[in-house]
Amino acid sequence: MDQIALNHEASAGDTHKQLVSSLPPEVVQCLENARFLHLATCTDNQPHVSLMNYTYIPSSQFSSAPVIVMTTNPSSKKTNNLVVNPNVSLLVHDWVSHRPPTQGRRMSGGSPGPEHRSSLASLLLNLNTSAISSISATINGTAELVARGSEEESFYRSQHLENNTFDSEGVVGAFNGGGGEQLPEDGGRECFVAGEEVRVILVHIKDIRTSDWKGSVKDWVLASEGNAPNVNGAR
User: Fold this and answer.
1) pTM of this structure
2) Does domain 10-96+124-169+176-222 have CATH number 3.30.930.10?
3) What contacts 165, CB < 8 A, 6 or more positions away?
């Protein structure tokens, strides 16, 4: 069923949520295209946001519903937060977020002005600023730390490790967990994913809000045992 995009006033509420049995295709595409997401946790009214590697798993022997897998240092702030409050929010988007230069804006870090850029740099910049993407998605759900040493943890860790294996050229300058640490040439896999002390986070999706660059907003609730079937607009 096609869903009508919300206007700016309606987008502030949640009266147009639709109940769905699976993630909308555009959300799946977004999750499959992006490499990082922002994880928001909160305790005592103090929000905390981390930049995370992740793996989207549509279904498995451990969950028939889609889940999002991440790994974390057990002593990190986000770990402490989600133990106290498992409600989390994720932001993921499949467009390039490089900011194009604006007239009169002073470039930082010695970045060359337009007149000094190579043809390749100009091409990449044009790609970055063009509408080559579709949506951003805010995903709300609950997070859990998978039991240490369990078969479930081993499965999700291996899937996450396989999904985040990049060559050295692809990881230079990348960051993990919002801590500002530059990753080594293996992408930090050994310390951030495969390390024995690293805990596996599993996020169970509750609802999704998408928006595009035109400001169109859509809301969905993913059907599960914990979600009531009488969501407004569901059919």
Assistant:
1) 0.72
2) no
3) 187, 189
Residue 53 β-bridge partners: 36
Select from 177, 94, 97 the least CA-distant residue to 137.
Answer: 94
The single-letter code of the amino acid at 82 is L
Predicted confidence (pLDDT) per residue in 167-216, tens digit: 544 443 344 444 444 444 434 444 455 556 899 999 999 999 999 878 88
Tokens of 79: 């770990």
The single residue listed with the structure tokens 């050295």 is 168
Taking the alpha carbons at both ends of the chain, their separation in whole angstroms is: 9
Other C-beta atoms within 10 Å of 66: how many?
21
- At 183, the amino acid letter reads L
Which of 162, 176, 16, 34 lies closest to 95, judged by CA? 34
pLDDT at 171: 44
Of 206, 215, 218, nearest in space to 16 by CA: 218
In the chain, where the domains are located: 10-96+124-169+176-222
Could you write out the DSSP letters of every residue in 30-65?
HHHH-SEEEEEEEETTEEEEEEEE-EEES-BTTBSS
pLDDT in tens, 121-136: 655 555 554 445 578 9
Encoded amino acid at 105, one letter: R
